[in-house]
């Protein structure tokens, strides 16, 4: 030896650490890991090594979407009850999830075109377009389209969730109603609009937001909420863009498995907006 001390490269299990779970709740039991970890079932034969990546990528996305939908629905309910501060806490959590979802595309992007081509055929017509949780999230944010409901006709439970999101006021609707209750001059036609329709740009709302942005200290809670909503939209657009670039990287300009045009279809989604007046007000400020 050279005089260096030889150390045991292990860590002792402390005496207080619980090791007997014969009648106690365990980590695996609480998370129902046997169910969770048995849900990854590649169907390529022979089984292709990279199909597990593809499945895990999309399953984890669905888990995060479940949380996003939970938080956004909670935020809507809180704003409906004039409880803005905890609603913003939920929105902040959603923003962190969005960043995770966006960065997650970098993992799928390690899948090369050659690797994906070897098992893509087993997907049949399965496509992310059929994600009912994603659709519900878009609807809660105001990007509504009743025609999409037909995609879920064969899954009544999923269809019920999406329909509920279609028929209830969006997060933006709830916020605008909250502004009206505070005394801001939100146009009556906005408050009485058909909430099953996609939000469209409403010029008469821009002066309402301009008044907020020109005196932020006076309207701080509303001002902060506006900026949080802009963050939500910006994060969503970044997610969409990374989705597009990952698809282009892996399949180029091939059509999607669900029948869409693929990358061109995803590119058009970049033109969709949730809160257009919150962007338009930036042009109006100071002019």
Helix/strand structural class = mainly alpha
Strand content: under 5%
Please, how many helices? 13
Shape: globular
N- to C-terminal distance: 77 Å
By DSSP, the count of extended strands is 0
Q: Give the topology string: H per helix, E per strand.
A: HHHHHHHHHHHHH
What's the story with the biggest beta sheet? none
Q: What level of helicity do the residues show?
A: 55-70%
Report the uncertain regions.
Answer: none
Radius of gyration: 24 Å
Quick structural overview:
By secondary structure, this protein is mainly alpha-helical. The chain is built from 13 helices and no strands.
Structural overview:
With 287 residues, the protein is mainly alpha-helical. It has helices spanning 27-31, 33-37, 51-80, 84-108, 113-117, 132-140, 156-167, 171-182, 188-191, 206-214, 220-251, 263-269, 276-284. It has 13 helices and no strands. The radius of gyration is 24 Å and the shape is globular. The N and C termini lie far apart (77 Å).
Key structural traits:
287 residues; 13 helices; 57% helix; globular; mainly alpha
Fold topology:
Layout: H1 27-31, H2 33-37, H3 51-80, H4 84-108, H5 113-117, H6 132-140, H7 156-167, H8 171-182, H9 188-191, H10 206-214, H11 220-251, H12 263-269, H13 276-284
Helix pairs in contact: 3-4, 3-6, 3-8, 4-11, 6-7, 10-13, 11-12
